[in-house]
Design a protein that fits this description.
This protein has 231 residues and is mostly helical. The chain has helices at residues 2-18, 26-35, 40-60, 63-87, 89-100, 106-141, 156-185, 209-218, 220-230.
């Protein structure tokens, strides 16, 4: 039993040694193992120490073990990622730039940056021109100019097409609202009270949603006639 207590004491010293405190020399440990290699109690204790790593490994593979170790792993990964971003990523970006612009001189770099700035300016100017064009068209068609910028395309053709689609939807909804309001009030309009307007608000030249709404309210029959003429 005294030998076993000594063994426990030595094992504790050895654990402390693993933490960095030199309390037992390697030669003393070897000598202890050699002196007690036939002792069953000592061997069983040593085998128990040998099994500890396996038991720890088995525990870490369980849900509880994973939950315990995961924060440490996450912290290690995050630290490694930040180190990679700080030390490795800049060089990778620089290498990629060199691949796209090999042996680029200072003059070439200056010209490239100038071209990029000019391209941005052209893009901004084109967008501004398209917004002005769309605003003019929307005003002519009686569309709300507040939403024009949502319908500006990559070029004039796409912008005009977008506004035409908006016009169709807008007109359809106006007619629907006017028709429902007319039915709700139970009004009947005498078509003879209003003659054909001088400027057909459904025609491309005189297109006017406000005037269309007025005619739809006051004279639905005339509205149908004018729409047919415009088509």
């Amino acid at each position: 039993m005294e030998m076993f207590i000594q063994m426990l004491s030595l094992s504790r010293h050895f654990l402390i040694l693993c933490k960095g405190e030199i309390l037992v020399s390697l030669e003393e440990l070897k000598q202890f193992l050699e002196d007690n290699k036939e002792d069953k109690e000592a061997q069983e204790y040593l085998e128990g120490l040998y099994l500890v790593p396996k038991k720890v490994k088995a525990f870490l593979e369980t849900d509880a073990g994973k939950k315990l170790i995961q924060p440490a792993l996450d912290s290690y990964f995050t630290k490694g990622l930040e180190t990679w971003k700080e030390k490795t990523m800049p060089s990778l970006i620089e290498e990629e730039i060199k691949k796209k612009f090999p042996d680029e001189t200072e003059e070439q770099k200056r010209l490239r940056k100038l071209e990029e700035e000019l391209a941005k300016e052209r893009q901004a100017r084109t967008k501004s021109e398209l917004i002005n064009k769309a605003t003019t068209l929307a005003t002519q068609k009686g569309l709300p100019v507040e939403v024009v910028h949502y319908f500006v395309g990559q070029d004039e053709e796409e912008t005009v097409n977008n506004l035409t689609a908006l016009e169709n939807i807008w007109q359809s909804n106006i007619e629907k609202v006017v028709s429902e309001k007319f039915k709700e009030n139970g009004r009947t309009i005498d078509p003879s009270k209003k003659g054909d307007p001088k400027n057909n608000p459904w025609s491309k030249k005189y297109f006017n949603l406000t005037e269309q709404g007025r005619i739809l309210r006051e004279n639905p029959e005339l509205a149908k006639k004018l729409k047919a003429q415009a088509n």
